[in-house]
Amino acid sequence: MPAFFNRKITTVINDTENNDREETKVGKKGFPGMGGMPNMNNMMKQAQKMQKQMAEMQEQLEQQEFEASAGGGVITVKVNGKKEIIDIQIKPEAVDPDDVEMLQDLIMAVVNEAMRIADETVSREMGKLTGGMNLPGF
């Protein structure tokens, strides 16, 4: 527990007869004057535990593979949780030298779909840990 949570707080109070007296308070439940704020040490422990769980989850998700296909399965793309393309499969029947634009469109569509699947899965899994809080970077 950080030292400032257990320190003794002494305040000099002037009473109506101009006699000084001391009032002593010991902060055991957070900052003095914060109306019973929950124990900050416990909150910090919980935050650290959540941070560790999120890091573990993120590492698992980065290793996971996501796949999408287009054109009836003639093009298949795999990406990982880091949004890196790790495999592209193109069947010979997808290649038409007279229609290269169609192949380009199919590749773009399937890559975007694989990335979308990865994003949705990562967001859903991280949301389970954060309770729906939208934390930047996760």
Automatic annotation (TrEMBL):
Listed A to Z, the keywords are: Coiled coil, Cytoplasm, DNA-binding
Locations listed in the record: Cytoplasm, Nucleoid
What GO terms fall under cellular component here?
A: bacterial nucleoid; cytosol
Q: Which InterPro entries match?
A: YbaB-like_sf, YbaB/EbfC
Signal peptide, first to last residue: none
Which intervals of the chain form a coiled coil?
40-67
The record's region (Disordered) falls at 16-40
**What Gene Ontology terms describe what this protein does at the molecular function level?**
DNA binding
Q: Does the keyword Disulfide bond apply?
A: no
Q: Which PANTHER family match?
A: NUCLEOID-ASSOCIATED PROTEIN YBAB
**Which family does the UniProt entry place this protein in?**
Belongs to the YbaB/EbfC family.
Q: What does this protein do?
A: Binds to DNA and alters its conformation. May be involved in regulation of gene expression, nucleoid organization and DNA protection.
The record's note on quaternary structure and interaction partners says: Homodimer.
What protein is this chain from? Nucleoid-associated protein SAMN06296020_10787
Q: Which organism is it from?
A: Anoxynatronum buryatiense
